Amino acid sequence: MQWVKVLGGVVGAAALLGLGIIVGHFAIPKGADSPAPSASASQDLDREILKTVIEQLDANRIRENLRELSKEPHLATSPRDEVLVQLLLQRWQDPQSGLDSARTTEYEVLLSFPSEEQPNRVDVVNSTGAILFSCRHSEENLTGEQGGPNVVPPYAAYAPPGTPQGPLVYANQGSEEDFKELQNKGVKLQDSIVLTRYGGVGRGAKAVNAAKYGVIGVLVYTDPKDINDGKSLPNETFPHSWCLPPSGVERGSYFEYFGDPLTPYLPAMPSSFRLNSDNASGFPPIPIQPIGFKDAQVLLCQVNVSVHNRLELRNSSNVLGIIRGAVEPDRYVLYGNHRDSWVHGAVDPSTGTAVLLELSRVLGTLLKKGTWRPRRSIVFASWGAEEFGLIGSTEFTEEFFSKLQERAVAYINVDISVFANATLRVQGTPPIQSVVFSAAKQISAPGSSGLSIYDNWIRYYNRSSSVYGLVPSVGTLGAGSDYAPFIHFLGISSMDIAYTYDRSKTSARIYPTYHTAFDTFDYVNKFLDPGFTSHQAVARTAGSVLLRLSDSLFLPLNVSDYSETLRSFLQAAENLRVPLAQHNISLGPLVTAVEKFEGAATSFNQRIATLQEGTSDPLQVRMINDQLMLLERTFLNSQAFPEERYYSHVLWAPRTGSVATFPGLSNAYSQAENAGHKPAAWAEVQRQLSIVVAALEGAAATLRPVADL
Description:
By secondary structure, the protein is of the alpha/beta class. 37% of the residues lie in helices and 16% in strands. Keywords: Aminopeptidase, Calcium, Cell membrane, Disulfide bond, Glycoprotein, Hydrolase, Membrane, Metal-binding, Metalloprotease, Protease, Signal-anchor, Transmembrane, Transmembrane helix, Zinc.
């Protein structure tokens, strides 16, 4: 345990300076350590180690990982899901390539499944109730993989049971606007069943919107124009191309929130208080069932929908693999992806898990050889039950809320690692932009272009920055994967990394076989990434980002990159200046707050530059890094959005208003405009403006020298 002795000396010396490095929750049991190079408080990113990791990430190993992960369906809590739990534990406990420690955590969560005894049905019936046509109960078995006993039939998770019958009405995407338009045209919606297509609004929102207009049941299908660029014939679709075949049905969760439905804000432990499922909110109010586009084409007149879903408490596991930091073991860089899928889940999520396993193998091998140990701790995570509503990751953030807020540096999410093979796609908070750009510039893009991943990326997705000129576009984070609780609930700098499409060649809203029984290994191997070089590119990019965050002396997060976002939001808010003034609401405090942040960020970066030029004092480095780590937390306000569960980040909460400014301000303004001159509505606009101002002033204060109280 050589490195522990060295660390003890370093920590002891640093403690005299008030550094205060403490033992983290993810402690390594005695005897689990590997020899490592001598650690020192000035340990920084080793470029040779970084080069070694990038070179050793193997495309063929990723391919074989994916083959194993996706060979059988692995719905959350199924026997195959448990087999994969054990596979991850075995890999992370391997004596040659494992990590310091690995363990599972279980949560008892409420999931939703279709009844095996009473399959869900959609029938066309006549006035006497006689069945004239029935939709398929399962997808067509085109490759021998769609008909197995463990293939869950298409269903809408958390949809309530029921057998509504009524006339069928086409309602486009099921948005509020779609139903208003139908009502305005005199279409009778009361006691009807509506047919909607995926997209536009969330799955569950279609049922919520429909119920407001007296609709008693909802059908959802994937339209070939949205997913297949219009291709719909059997010889144009899978297995002849990557397009969704006519019988393909997208499964999914229709729960409105994320996390376990019965234990909001509490980890789903046996001792936790649970809501009664009859009183829990967020479930669809009326029965809903997905169907294929072939069946959607022939549905006419009277339709009967029979949904027999059931709710069950099940034990779902997260798997955690830990590499203990040599200098700052109480600072965590987290890297995660979910494990569960709706069927075989080759693309979603196993492309991400295949990359995770290869990256952890390479790092684990270096660790076991004693040639490397990160400065900060690395936590690899395989989340359970994500498909039902980000359950595993949310329960983890609830259980370790305080610890993660105090100690987590960043969260890297690699869910679907390869949507397609054209270019890198990154979503994240502004401070992560610089570390992703640095990584992407140093790695070659797949193919023969000779370009770096960065230069290839900028060809497909770019924006004009007032600071940097033309740069790749980094998207924002919604709630589509396990990064959601980390950014929205905990305020941890987060990102999602993948390879994706050339948008000039397809308008598909997502890869066509998403959440269907056709998402198989052969689909990936034949159509998405035949050489697995895009998988390798994601592994190299994510691995480089991970090492830069875990090993760099100064955290490679650039707080000034928030200034562009804030300035953009402020400019949009300026369009509201006149109508706000009519209600005695001034934007002056907001302008001042943005300027304060910009000034504080500039001064902060200057202090970092000064420290980097000299001999870095460990205490000063620690303080700077804590300011970088904690900046994102300053944008949290638990009272900002009381109607939204888990959303407390005042910059990235859902925006329903039409003005592209701070979401709370935009939403409140839109509601006030619709409400007319109601004082309470405009008071909420003032409240939201004050919340943003307070957050920005708090962020500026966080960046000022620690001694400046």
